[in-house]
Design brief:
The chain is α+β, with helices and mostly antiparallel strands. It is built from four helices and six strands. Helix content is 50%, strand content 23%. The strands form two sheets. It has a three-stranded antiparallel beta sheet. The protein has a three-stranded antiparallel beta sheet with strand order 4-5-6. The longest helix is centred in the N-terminal third of the chain and has 29 residues.
């Protein structure tokens, strides 16, 4: 996954959550009659961006997506690597989660496989899908339509 896209989305979420936390902490301190320290206000945003950068890098190297002639392998939300043979793909559709694009691949066993659409080398991934996925496969159709 591309760490830059993860960084951008993570930083936006981190800055937003930091702002909520800083405002909440400041209001709580003011309600107690204390003055919030300026350092809390000044350092919260850079700290959030730094944390987002570290998390983006960890996620990008920890969750590879592999396409082969046999199928596609990706990690689920519980950190389990799952392999889906092409024959088990029932349908696929694009999904946007918090600003991040995914393909939700529904398998014949009823379980979904979530594939990020923001990989470091998205062009090579798309080329591999077009090369290996069967002609009638929904994943291939969606990737071809987005190319």
């Amino acid at each position: 996954m591309s760490p830059w896209i993860l960084l951008a989305v993570g930083a936006a979420w981190g800055i937003g959550l930091s702002a909520v936390a800083v405002v909440g902490l400041s209001l709580w301190m003011l309600s107690l009659g204390a003055q919030p320290p300026l350092s809390v206000l000044l350092y919260s945003v850079p700290a959030s961006v730094g944390i987002a950068l570290v998390l983006a890098w960890v996620i990008s190297v920890s969750y590879p997506v592999v396409v082969s002639p046999e199928g596609i392998r990706a990690h689920d939300w519980l950190d389990r690597a799952r392999f889906a043979p092409w024959a088990t793909v029932e349908s696929a559709r694009p999904v946007n989660l918090g600003g991040l694009a995914y393909l939700r691949i529904d398998l014949v066993d009823g379980s979904p496989l979530w594939v990020p659409r923001f990989l470091v080398d998205q062009a090579s991934f798309d080329a591999a899908i077009l090369e290996y996925a069967p002609e009638a496969n929904d994943v291939r159709r969606l990737v071809a339509a987005s190319a």
